[in-house]
Write a structure and sequence with these properties.
- Chains A, B: This is Transcriptional regulator, LacI family.
- 2 copies of one chain form a homodimer.
- The termini of chain A are far apart.
- In chain A, β8, α11 and β9 form a beta-alpha-beta unit.
- The first copy, chain A, is elongated.
- Chain A has 340 residues and is an alpha/beta fold.
- A 6-stranded parallel β-sheet of chain A has the order 2-1-3-4-5-11, with helices on both faces. In chain A, strands 7-6-8-9 form a 4-stranded parallel β-sheet, with helices on both faces.
- Chain A has helices spanning 5-12, 16-24, 31-43, 50-57, 74-88, 102-114, 132-137, 162-175, 193-207, 224-236, 251-263, 297-313; strands spanning 62-67, 92-97, 119-123, 142-145, 156-160, 181-186, 217-220, 245-248, 273-275, 292-294, 323-326, 329-331.
- Chain A folds into 3 domains: 5-48, lambda repressor-like DNA-binding domains (434 Repressor (Amino-terminal Domain), Orthogonal Bundle); 56-160 and 298-325, Response regulator (Rossmann fold), CATH 3.40.50.2300; 162-294, Response regulator (Rossmann fold), CATH 3.40.50.2300.
- Chains A and B meet through α4, α5, β2, α6 and α11 of A and α4, α5, β2, α6 and α11 of B.
- β2 (92-97) of chain A pairs antiparallel with β2 (92-97) of chain B.
- Chain B binds a DNA duplex (16 and 16 nucleotides) through α2 and α4.
Chain lengths: 340, 340
DNA sequence: TTGTAGGCGTTATCAC
DNA sequence: GTGATAACGCCTACAA
């Protein structure tokens, strides 16, 4: 049996209350007593029960994280930031994988709230109005990362300016001499990000006086195979609608696209240039290294945690709630070439 | 304020105990009562407090997972299996990243035990004797994955037969006509896996009557850059100790090695063949696709969870404790070619 | 089958 | 500065 607070109290010749204070408000206890208590804790290798503490104090030093799928490559990067920040505040993280299901996501909120988490980070999926009831019910701070809200409940989100990011991609490609630019966009039923990036693409074209051509756009669900297949469709009509560069909505799709191009005898970037999106660790591990736009995953994770912790101690004012756009960055590597 | 068990009880006109039973032992309660209770729970959208339950029942439907680093590519795959199985048993997962530090790992055990987790999955790092005290102290089942124990406390582990796996790699390369086989082995201060794979390499060579040559072996810490640098060192002496194939201790190092080869004007596999290890998702996304040995990450994760759950309900007999070796599989793709 | 009562390990509010 | 004492929300004998 593990030692409890009472065991420590007895050993130190004080009451449980004092041990508790020694733990949480050491300034309120006599230095000598404190010393005794600490020694006792040390000797019994006392580890306070987070569970009991949570029950009593109605908070649990735990954050909940809801991700759509653990195998999404960006997860590790986002988590890195979350972990770094939460550790700094002595918080633990409870992970919940919604497996791309809305019901599972709802359930995630419920379950996590059952664990008295002091906040929930929700990732990547669009929050629609059907989340409102559950959002209302779990009465704890929620923050969004890599996505945004279309629900009634005001929610703050940390993400990049998707439109602007893809605009920058187009601008970059144009600056490298490309005018015939295809796109492999992202599309998921509960995803607004894909649309935003597409919008950025269109804005970019418009800005540079390039006509938007539907036949140059294909969609995929962000994964490798989707990128491959989308490229295949693009390739089928390359005679009629040629392109010298392709921008994609994810690094993974970019890899798929490149593979498809290779399989059809095209070299990247010599024949066709490809741009990724995300700047995941793999982007620099492949040949050609991916030219891509970097999302500040770590920072987003950190900011989300900080926001949550702030929100837990002091309800945020309406003006503090909203979308926080963090800066993205274009990373030049090898998958795009300049054409005359 | 969230509804408590008492609120539900009142609404259903029963006692809290009955609600509790309705939740945990529905077979013990009258069907009609059960119905009433369930309706009440539904209406109040009652979510039992996992915290309180854990305190009272001294278990928490939570598993702890200690990983050395969240950014290790295999993590997602392992977690996938863990999540799948734990979900099946209604367990949640508390994640702890030890950041490759032994102290943090110790702390992980402590903290997780403070959360009353019903078991801990420890990953990837060698468990040495200095873990014994903490292992003894946290009095909960611990299971190892992708590693093994060198501690006194008997521990069960799920992993593959590393020696055999690397032996198979060598056998495969030999069957493809290779005799001059270099290796980029893994080395970490708290890692035995690297040694085992190296051993498999040596056994393989011996078995096929190939002389082991130290100059053909380099070491790295499993990451991309390590693979790159190791290959660079190998290349520096390729005149004196030539090789036609390289096997590596991780897919990531294989990618680094390939990149290094490319940078030095070698083509893979035309000039030199490269083998990975792990079969991570990226292995099939790069060009050339990696020929590699697949670790059954999902199964390992699942088995670990099942073992933990079994152990929680019934202390395992000494004979059940030990190393469980799951089958690996050689995946043939494009990074190795046959030579005459 | 159901209810009562005590306890799980803390924290928080009082007195002292 | 310290010590009782009452929660916190649930589970589990035990009794009815």
């Amino acid at each position: 049996m593990r030692a409890t607070i009472r065991d420590v109290a007895k050993a130190a010749g004080v009451s449980a209350a004092t041990v508790s204070r020694a733990l949480n408000r050491p300034d309120l206890v006599d230095p000598e007593t404190l010393e005794r208590v600490r020694k006792a804790m040390e000797e019994m290798s006392y580890q306070p029960s987070a569970i009991a503490r949570g029950l009593s104090a109605r908070r649990s030093d735990t954050l909940g994280l809801i991700v759509p799928g653990i195998t999404d490559f960006f997860f590790n990067e986002l988590y890195k930031g979350i972990d770094r920040a939460s550790q700094q505040y002595g918080m633990k993280v409870l992970l919940y994988d919604s497996e791309h299901s809305r019901e599972r996501a709802f359930e995630g909120f419920s379950i996590l709230s059952g664990y008295q988490v002091s906040g929930i980070i929700f990732t990547s999926k669009l929050v629609t109005e059907d989340y409102d009831p559950i959002l209302q019910r779990v009465n704890i701070p929620v923050v969004l990362t890599l996505t945004q809200s279309a629900a009634k409940t005001p929610l703050t989100a940390f993400r990049i300016d998707e439109v602007r990011a893809m605009f920058d991609v187009v601008a970059y490609l144009v600056s490298r001499g490309h005018r015939q630019i295809a796109m492999i966009a992202g599309k998921l039923w509960d995803d607004r990000t894909g649309e935003l990036r597409l919008e950025g693409y269109r804005e970019g074209l418009r800005h540079f006086g390039i006509e938007y051509c539907e036949a140059r756009v294909e969609f995929g669900q962000y994964r490798f195979d989707d990128g491959y297949q989308a490229m295949q469709r693009l390739l089928e009509r390359i005679r009629d609608v040629p392109f010298t560069a392709v921008c994609t909505a994810s690094d993974e799709m970019a890899l798929g696209a490149i593979r498809c191009l290779n399989d059809h005898g095209y070299r990247v970037p010599d024949d066709i240039s490809v741009m990724g999106f995300d700047d995941l660790p793999i982007a620099r591990m492949v040949t050609p290294r991916l030219t891509t736009v970097a999302q500040p995953f770590h920072e987003i994770g950190e900011e989300a945690v900080k926001w949550l912790i702030r929100a837990a101690s002091q309800p945020p004012s309406p003006s503090e709630i909203g979308d926080y756009l963090l800066p993205h960055r274009l990373v030049e590597r090898e998958s795009v070439r300049s054409i005359s």
